[in-house]
Design brief:
With 290 residues, the chain is α+β, with helices and mostly antiparallel strands. 66% of the residues lie in helices and 11% in strands.
Length: 290
């Protein structure tokens, strides 16, 4: 009887260990997304036009893979994987933008060549056309230099921010910096935590490297638990708290506004704790002037 009891106990322990081992091999959704984003970026123009960005994305993915291998499906692994997914998106976005600019430059060059050929009909027309092209060329060069400098500052700011926050280049909204609400505030409160101030110091420092003409919108978001009006008020107060702090760190007050959206713009399912945690966030949107 005693031997039978020992055997049954051993079988139960073995089953539990086997189940735990199997479950630990299932990667979190964030890591799956990071893998997919990197695979897509590496198959596009990024290897040719943005190799440095793609290399940064690969290193970020490697860190996520190592965290999953060593620790399994933990919160830290998910955070690292989330950052890796965003880094791959940045690499792909930069490459697509550069590819579009190259096509635009080729089209502009072809257009200018046609104008010159047509202007060769008479010497007077040729002289006039050359003068116009010289003026246009200088304007284009000046504009290109301005854009290149703005892109350089934006890339550096994104690289700095990606070390501690999620950074995404949205073609419509601009650069979106996402900070977890749990990092910034206590539950149901809007007073910034001391650790949050440290992170926002780094955000402010990175934003000062951006074009000074860019505008900034701080957006507050919550999950769907609790009353709708309470969540709306909480998201507004949290957005205003972040805005006030960034202004205190040197961001011009007329460049930055705060808006609360409550639970209306969730990015995950509120049915799960993980989804609700993702929805509780503050997004800092940087919009560059065209």
């Amino acid at each position: 009887m005693m031997n039978f009891q020992k055997i049954r106990t051993g079988l139960v322990v073995a089953a539990i260990l086997t189940t735990a081992a199997c479950s630990s091999m299932v990667p979190p959704n964030e890591l799956v997304t990071a893998r997919s984003n990197y695979a897509r970026a590496s198959q596009g123009p990024a290897p040719r036009l943005a190799p440095a960005d793609l290399d940064s994305a690969k290193k970020a993915l490697d860190r996520a893979e190592a965290s999953f291998k060593e620790d399994g499906d933990t919160a830290e692994t998910k955070d690292i994987s989330y950052a890796a997914a965003r880094q791959a998106e940045i690499a792909e976005s930069h490459a697509r933008t550069m590819e579009a600019n190259q096509l635009k430059d080729t089209t502009n060059a072809s257009t200018r060549a046609n104008e010159v050929n047509q202007a060769q009909v008479t010497s007077a027309e040729l002289a006039k056309t050359k003068s116009q092209l010289a003026t246009q060329g200088q304007a284009l060069a000046t504009e290109r230099e301005r854009r290149e400098e703005a892109d350089r500052r934006a890339a550096q700011a994104a690289a700095d921010l990606a070390k501690f926050a999620s950074v995404k280049q949205d073609p419509v909204r601009g650069m979106v910096i996402t900070l977890s609400g749990g990092v910034l505030f206590e539950s149901a409160k809007w007073l910034l935590l001391p650790t949050a101030q440290t992170k926002l110091n780094e955000v402010a420092e990175a934003l000062t490297k951006q074009d000074k003409d860019s505008t900034i919108v701080v957006e507050g978001h919550t999950d769907s638990q609790g009353a709708a009006q309470m969540n709306q008020d909480l998201s507004q107060k949290r957005a205003e708290a972040v805005r006030t702090y960034l202004v205190s760190r040197g961001i011009a007050a007329d460049r930055i506004t705060a808006t609360g959206f409550g639970p209306s713009r969730g990015i995950a399912d509120n049915a799960s704790p993980e989804g609700r945690a993702n929805n509780r966030r503050v997004e800092i949107v940087v919009k560059q002037k065209p």
